[in-house]
């Protein structure tokens, strides 16, 4: 049962804290005939081998592992000095691990509902993820833009669509299973579709939404909502070119285009004439612009403002991609912008050229 493919990097994240109810400890009674006395068995985090949950010494073919466990989760059961290991989806409950011999692979686990769900789901999904991985490797081996590459990418996307359907079907059928949040977490490493994720997450029972993986998913969903059309703009403050603090909410009552750019960004500089034209046409109609620069050097920033004729409010913390406002709105490429209405609600994103003028005419006239 070598299913390492299913261990998500998300296990390395610190899941947001949540109130815990019910049992928060586990016990695993093991029976492994043929395992020598004195052998050490232990449970550890699959991604951090030093993170040992519990360990015990085998006596007469038996061991007992117990310890704190706030949420059902995946751990490796291993034996020191051997190749024996087995992924287990532990519940905070009394459980048993019974093998007919010294091997771990064919052992029967009882007492863990999550392990039973995991064993039901794993045979279907493991081969599919394996095929996806092989297909991705083939795509990477082909020259980018070649006919072979394009064909493989099309097949890969079809496979991802099928994976969406498989995952959605499982989640719908198992709204009370901790494995549902686990598979959604794995799925999001392959395909980041936050609207789709939010739909699947809503199908889960509340207690499942707040388990280990559920809290990670909730964090992803909340973060992805930031800056979406229809949501309220989150306030921020940065200094203008004269060192004076400027707050987004200070523009409340006006339509304001929040424009993320930088002096070193060629596409940004190419777009600036369109932004200037829109500002000149609509500045007297309850509209303004707040530009946020991802520059590092103030001199280059100020020079670009002058050269491009950007006469509206300009702010920056001069922290490059670590600009606090850019990070707040998950800005990973520029230029980007968002149009905020007088009440502070985002009503459009990434308006370019004629699109910007059309939208401003729509809301201002």
From TrEMBL:
InterPro entries: AhpC/TSA, DUF4369, Thioredoxin-like_sf, Thioredoxin_CS, Thioredoxin_domain, Thioredoxin_ResA/DsbE_sf. Coiled coil: none annotated. Keywords: Cytochrome c-type biogenesis, Disulfide bond, Redox-active center, Signal. Residues 227-365 form the Thioredoxin domain. GO terms for molecular function: antioxidant activity; oxidoreductase activity. The keyword Membrane does not apply. One of its GO terms (cellular component) is cell envelope. It holds the Pfam family DUF4369. Its main location: other. It is found in: Cell envelope. PROSITE patterns: THIOREDOXIN_1, THIOREDOXIN_2. GO terms for biological process: cytochrome complex assembly. Residues 1-19 form the signal peptide. This is Peroxiredoxin.
